[in-house]
């Protein structure tokens, strides 16, 4: 059962919910919270959609723990090896800001740690095994996050 729900969107939703609770309990409202938060949310969603579409065009999976059929290195994947996870982080920051949950912002580092340890490291090992030198060259020139 736990493996059935151990997916990045579930972690994202959990961290968002906790941040929302912090925002209600300890709101820190600044004049531009709504605007900045909305921009970050939109940016995160756009990045997520673009990256997912690029993976779909390449006919490879967007689902963690599945073996990819192709390696995507162009477009937004030139900026980050993990643009969907980066989009999750941007979206989460945007939610915290929009919800006046600035006190929850340090949880972003915990979210990054969870995503990296539970998903990214395994994905990188699988990519290295499947694509060898091609992946190693990509990894050498493209950062994990940004």
Automatic annotation (TrEMBL):
Cellular localisation: Endomembrane system
Gene3D superfamilies recorded: 1.20.120.1630
Pfam name, any one: PEMT
Transmembrane region(s): 35-58
Keywords in alphabetical order: Membrane, Transmembrane, Transmembrane helix
Superkingdom of origin organism: Bacteria
Mode of membrane association: Multi-pass membrane protein
PANTHER family reported for this sequence: PROTEIN-S ISOPRENYLCYSTEINE O-METHYLTRANSFERASE (PTHR12714), SLR1182 PROTEIN (PTHR12714:SF24)
Protein name: Isoprenylcysteine carboxylmethyltransferase family protein
